[in-house]
Structures are given as C-alpha cells and as structure tokens.
Amino acid sequence: MKVGTTTTFEAAHRLPNHPGICARLHGHSYRVQVEAEGQLDDTGAVIWFEDLDDFVAGWISETMDHRFIASPEENPELLAAVPDHVICETGDPTAENLAAWIGRRCLQLDRPDLKFSVKVWEIHGWGECWAEWSSG
Q1: What CATH number corresponds to the domain at position 101?
Q2: Per-residue b/e over 107-118, b at no fewer than 16 CB within 10 Å?
C-alpha cells in the first residue's frame, strides 16, 4: 500500500556549475510529493498522514521555504549577503539533489518497514520539470 503527502514552497537558488542561465541567482515555485510504501499495521494505516506530513512538510517549510538554497561550493560573499540561506546537503541545489535531501529526511523517520519516494517539481514560466528519488 502507498500513501503520500504533497506540499509546495518557494525558494531561490543558483547552479554554479550550470553552463547557462541557471548559474544566475533566480527563484522557483516547487511542489514536493512524498510517498511511503509498506504494509498496513493493526490500525489499518501504513503511516499516519499527520506524522508523515509534519515530519516532511513541516521540515520543508522550516528549512527551504522562502530561502536561498545554496550550493556547498557557493561564493562566501553571496552567502554573507543573504543571511537566511541554507546549504543543500546533497550538492548543488538541483531538483535531483533537493529530492535526495528530502529523501534523507524521510529516512530519519526510522521506519525500516517503509520504502520512500520523493518527487520534486521545479516550476518555471515555461513549464514544470521534476526529479524523483527512491529508497528502494
């Protein structure tokens, strides 16, 4: 059985290793979908929605929403100019690395009985792109 939650957030980033315009500081709307897959427990649930939502969406809201998500290699002068920045723990803040970072957060639930997948949509003026991470 699979259950999930979806949340949205707004953030700025830049991809310093990108060969084009994404190396410039810019912002996006993001949509994140987290799924947990496992067996139903005695209560008929895989995981309580509020537990999954609080643990993941609450963390996203506190950590990423309306922040500058920076690369670990970001220019220190730029970081000093943006005091509420956060460093992406999995590398440059691509959709792929954001999905992996959120996926690592899911694993901190310490539920080895569950498999997790995380899908991150980066919403642009010209469309939506996405990346997906899975624990197994």
Answers
A1: 3.30.479.10
A2: eeeebeebebbb
How far is it, in rounded angstroms, from Cα 113 to Cα 27?
36
73 within 8 A of 91, measured Cβ to Cβ: no
Active-site pick, 22, 85, 96, 132: 22
66 is catalytic: yes
pLDDT tens digits for 39-80?
999 999 999 999 999 999 999 999 999 999 999 999 999 999
Q: What is the enclosing helix (H) or strand (E) of 51? A: helix 49-63
Q: What is the span of the domain harbouring residue 104?
A: 2-134
Task: Check if 22 is active-site.
Answer: yes
Q: Tell me the pTM.
A: 0.95
Each residue of 7-19: pLDDT tens digit?
999 999 999 999 9
> 35, 37, 74, 122: which one is catalytic?
122
- Residues whose CB falls within 8 Å of the CB of residue 81, separated by 6 or more in sequence, listed in order: none
Considering 10, 18, 26, 66, which one is annotated as catalytic? Answer: 66
User: Is residue 31 within a helix (H) or strand (E), and if so which, with residue range?
Assistant: strand 26-37
Closest-CA residue to 86 (of 108, 69, 101): 69
